[in-house]
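Dear all,

This email documents one entry for the complex benchmark we are building for the journal club exercise. For each entry we list the sequence lines for every component of the assembly. Then comes the predicted three-dimensional structure of the complex as a C-alpha cell string, followed by one or two observations. Please use this as the template for your own entries, and keep the labels exactly as they appear.
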Amino acid sequence: MSAAELGSSGIPADAPRGYYGPDGQPQFFVDPAMDRFSAVLVKLVQEVWVLTERVDAIERVAAAKGSVTAAEVAALLADPAVSAAREAALAQFIGRTLGPLREPA
Amino acid sequence: MVVELKHAMKPELGAEDAARQRFVSGLRGFVLSDLAGDLRRVYDERVAPRFESTHGRAPADGDEVHQAMRVDPTFKAYSSLRVTAQKMVWDSVAPVVERHRGLLEAAAVAGDAKVKLDPAVQVPRSVSAVDVHLMPGSYSGKGAPEDMAPGAVYDQGFAVFSMGLMGDEFNDIGRSMARYISRKFPDFKPQRILDLGCTIGHNTLPWKEAYPDAEVVGADVVAGCLRYGSARAVSRGVDVEFRQMNAESIDLPDASVDVVFTSMFLHELSLKSIGRVFAEIRRVLRPGGLMLHMELPPNTQMGAFEGFYLDWDCYYNAEPFYKAFRDQEPRDLCRKAGFRDDHYLQFVVPSVWNHGEAAVETAIAAEGHEVNKATTGRLSHGGIEWFGFGAWREAQS
Ligand SMILES: C[S@@+](CC[C@H](N)C(=O)[O-])C[C@H]1O[C@@H](n2cnc3c(N)ncnc32)[C@H](O)[C@@H]1O
C-alpha cells in the first residue's frame, strides 16, 4: 500500500485535512518535509546508539581478556548486569541527544 | 526494556537487533513519560490560558484542545517522535521475523491441530486496507492468508512496544480482567468463554488460567494470527482453541457461551459493525451470561485534555474508528443491543502486573468505578489501570 493510500484509509472521515501533508502522512511542522527530516534524525540517533552498544561490548570483552570474539560479544546479551547497565546508559543517552525537544524546565 | 518471549517462537536476536529494539523501547519511554508530561504542563501553563483569554471559557472537548495544541512546539515534538517511534517498533522486528520463518512453521506443526480455519471468512477492509497502528500490512500482512509472519511481528513488536509494562507475556489485560470477574463474582462459573478479535491470544490464555474447567475459544478473522496464537498456546501448555470467525456472524449456536470477552477490539470497528457484533454476542450468550469489553475509557467520562490525549491515536496512529467509539457512552451501546440498564457493568481495575493481584481485591472492596483521568487505559511509568464495561444477559429471554 502506498503512503497516500495508507493516509486516506487510515484517517478518520471527519479529520481536518490540515492535519496531514500532501502525502497523506501526519503533518506537525510548517513544512511537511520537516516531518520527514525529524524521522531521519531519530533514526540516526538510533544508529548511534547501536554503535554505542557495540563499542561497549568490545570494550567489556577486551577489558576482561585483552581480545574480542563475536561469540563473546553475543554472550553479553545474556548477562543481566550488562543489560541493566545498558538500560541506564540508554536513558541518559536519550536525555542527552533528544533533550532539546523537551519543554525547558 | 524489551521483553523476552517465553515460547518456542522466541527469536535469536543479533547484537544490532537487540540494540535497535532497546533504543526504540527507550525512545517510547521518553515520549510517553517525559514528553507526555511536558505536554500536560504546556497545556496548563500556556495553551489553556491562551484559549481562555481568546474565548472567555475553557476548551469544551478534545477537539478544541487538539486544535489549540497543534501550534505548540511541544505538541509537534511529542507527535512527530511518537509517530516515528511507532514505525520504528515494526522496523526493529520485521527483519528478525523474516529470518525466523522456518522456526514459525516448525512451531505450527503442533499448533495447527488446535486451529479451525474457515476459508469462507473474508478479512474486512477495516483490517486489510488500513495499516492499523502503523503496522505495515496490518494483522493480515501482505503474503498468503495463512502466513504467520504478521502474528510474529505483532508479538515481537509488543515486546518492544509495551516497555515491560504489560506483563512478561503481554497478558496483563486478560489477567487483570479475569481476576476482577472471578473475585467480584465468585459464584459465576463459566463453562465456555469466547474471546472475539483475539489476534494471537495474548489476553485469551489468562481466561483458561482463571477458569481451568472452562472451554476457552479465541476467534479472529485473520488465519495467520490464529495459527501463530495456537502455536504459542501449545508451546505454553495452555489448552485453548482458536477459530477463524467474523465477530459479526459468530459461528456458534444461540445461547451457548457464558462469557464473551473482547480486549482493545471495539475501537477498531465502525459503529455499524459494533452494532452487529453486539447483536451476535447477545444471541450466543446463555441466560445469565456476561458480555465483557476491555477498552479505552470513554470521552463522556473524562476531561477535555485526557480525551484529546487518548484520541491522538485516531488522527496519527491509523486508528480511524477510535474517536467515534470513544465518543459513545458504553451503557448506551449495551442498551441499543437490548441489554437491560440494570444489568450494565462498568469498572476500572488496577493492572495486576504493575500493582499486584491484591490490588484487584482492594479495588473490588472500594467499588472504585471512576475513570482515573491520568492513568486509565494509558501506558506510562506512573501506574496503569484498565477500563472494563459490559452487561449480563437477563436470566430468561
Ligand atoms: C487490537 S486487535 C485485538 C487485540 C487482542 N484482543 C489482544 O488483547 O491482544 C484487533 C483484532 O481484531 C480483529 N478483527 C477485526 N475485525 C474483526 C471482525 N469483524 N471479527 C473478528 N475479528 C476482527 C483483527 O484481525 C485484530 O486481530
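Observations: Residues 1-7 of chain A have pLDDT under 50 and may be disordered. Chain A is about 65% helix and 0% strand.
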